[in-house]
Amino acid sequence: MNFQNYYRLPLDLGSITAKKILPKCNQKESIAHHLHLILTTSFGELLSDVRYGSSLWDEDFDNVSYRNKQKENILKSITSTIAKYESRIEKVKVEMNVMQEEVPDRTTDPRMKRKLDFVITAVMVATNENIVYRDSFFVSPLAYN
């Protein structure tokens, strides 16, 4: 399914007010945009539905050792949100790895930061096609790759 029926995120609000045509994407790209949105939204952030998002941002990643129970709760939260809000996929499996990574800093020596790597595998309902979505970002403070 290569139809360009979905709007590409992030939306260019300037184009909307200028009445220009917004860029579109296919279903697979749209699902990837939506999964990124789910991962980066905390509960309560979307005022029209406070249940949208994940518990990821309620967690403290500054612990010296990352606890398995914490990771389990995050994965359950993300999986539940995907099941509720992304009906275009099924058989969803979410994996998350937490690691330390050296990050260059312009003003000081490189710093160690916590990095979250996500791999979400699923099957597209419309085509029965397997999809793999990968995303990663640094936490404390949040930064996207």
Outline the fold blueprint.
Blueprint: E1 6-7, H1 13-17, E2 24-25, H2 27-39, H3 68-85, E3 89-103, E4 111-124, E5 130-139, E6 143-144
Antiparallel strand pairs: 1-2, 3-4, 4-5, 5-6
Task: Give an account of the 3D structure.
With 145 residues, the chain is α+β, with helices and mostly antiparallel strands. It has a single domain, classed as Roll (Nuclear Transport Factor 2, Chain: A), CATH 3.10.450.40. Helix content is 25%, strand content 31%. It has helices at 13-17, 27-39, 68-85; strands at residues 6-7, 24-25, 89-103, 111-124, 130-139, 143-144. It has a 4-stranded antiparallel β-sheet, with helices on one face. A two-stranded antiparallel sheet has the order 1-2. Strand 4 and strand 5 (130-139) form a beta hairpin. It starts with 5 loop residues before the first strand and ends with a strand. The model has no long low-confidence stretch (mean pLDDT 85).
Secondary structure: helix percent = 10-25%
Terminal CA distance: 29 Å
Number of strands: 6
- Overall mean pLDDT stands at 85
CATH architecture: Roll
Total domains: 1
Helix/strand-derived class? Answer: alpha+beta
The percentage of residues in β strands lies in 25-35%
Report the sheet with the most strands, covering strand number, pairing sense and barrel closure: 4 strands, antiparallel
List low-pLDDT spans: none
How many helices? The count is 3
- Reported by name, the CATH topology is Nuclear Transport Factor 2, Chain: A
Query: Could you give the order of the helices and strands?
Result: EHEHHEEEE
Strand order of the largest sheet: 3-4-5-6
CATH class category label: Alpha Beta
Radius of gyration: 17 Å
